[in-house]
Design brief:
mainly alpha, 0% strand, elongated, 6 helices, 307 residues
């Protein structure tokens, strides 16, 4: 009885691995439109929230100075409670806008791989991107590099998407203005929003600490607690929060406008490169048959029987 050979053959073929699928183009227009609509809704909600903050500033100031009646305090509390869901709406819209924008960027990056591949309309041997595909998502959440990696990714996508008949279109002043204007406004928005919120929180904590210290000192000395300076401090904090949110809203609008124009331009560039009308080719003429050539060969006298 034969036994199986316990060792593998030296040239035994391994499992078959199919070749990687070639890149393909996916349209960007619809997802770009959804992202632009969400940007507009976010900007509108932020403007309404900013207006409500300015309208409530006088009431906040009077509340700090103790000039409101109980009815006015109740009305102000209801106003603050009513504006809370609107502020939540701004946050939800920001999250939705971020998701759709990253989806658009991911698809645009894949499309540039197709455009510059041997299967695409603009084959190139150069590497069009400085970062791998995973950074399209990770660059927004990784600390420190999130301040310039997303910009680098968008720069590469824009450069790889420029039309074939317009070399250098991605390096014009208009495109660079949209690109760097969008990024500067976006970074400024988050710096003011996060930094301003942190400053306001620290200011409130400082106000509480100073108020407790003043009350303890008054209890020890039996003197009247003068909190006028503390009231001025809280009014300045409220004014700073209102101004900061207004400036952040303006930057958000600027970033949304620049990003929308950039999305539309890159989507149109990629679509125009792929959707090239086919060249009309004339049908081939009917085949012409040449007369058959026959070689007569040597001629022999014909045989005739004798008469």
């Amino acid at each position: 009885m034969s036994q199986p050979w316990p060792y593998a053959y030296p040239h035994q073929p391994g499992p078959y691995t199919p070749p990687p699928a070639p890149p393909k183009y996916r349209p960007l227009r619809r997802i770009a439109q959804v992202s632009i609509v969400l940007m507009g809704l976010t900007a509108v909600a932020a403007v309404i929230q900013s207006v409500l903050l300015w309208r409530s500033y006088d009431d906040v100031k009077r509340f700090v100075y103790g000039l409101l009646s109980e009815e006015e305090i109740d009305r102000g509390a209801r106003s603050v409670t009513g504006s809370g869901p609107l502020l939540d709406l701004v946050g939800y819209l920001l999250v939705g806008t971020a998701i759709t924008f990253i989806l658009w960027l991911w698809r645009a990056r894949e499309n540039t791989d197709f455009i510059t591949s041997p299967f695409g309309p603009k084959p190139s041997t150069l590497r069009p991107h400085r970062l791998v595909q995973g950074w399209v998502i990770g660059s927004w959440f990784c600390p420190i590099v999130q301040f310039w990696y997303p910009l680098r990714i968008v720069e590469d996508v824009v450069a790889a998407s420029e039309p074939r008949d317009q070399p250098g279109a991605s390096r014009t002043g208009e495109v660079r203005g949209l690109l760097y204007g969008w990024w500067a406004a976006w970074i400024g928005f988050w710096v003011i929003l996060i930094g301003g919120g942190g400053i306001a929180l620290i200011g409130f904590i400082v106000w509480i600490v100073r108020l407790v210290d003043a009350a303890d000192a008054a209890d020890a000395t039996g003197e009247y607690v003068d909190i006028y300076d503390l009231q001025d401090f809280m009014v300045r904090v409220a004014l700073g929060v209102t101004i900061g949110f207004t400036v952040a809203t303006v930057l958000l609008i600027a970033a949304g406008v620049a990003a929308s124009l950039l999305l539309l331009r890159v989507s149109r560039w990629q679509h125009d490169q792929v959707a090239v009308p086919p060249v009309a080719v004339a049908p081939p003429p009917p085949p012409q048959y040449a007369p058959r050539y026959t070689n007569p060969g040597p001629t022999f006298p014909s045989y005739r029987p004798p008469s």
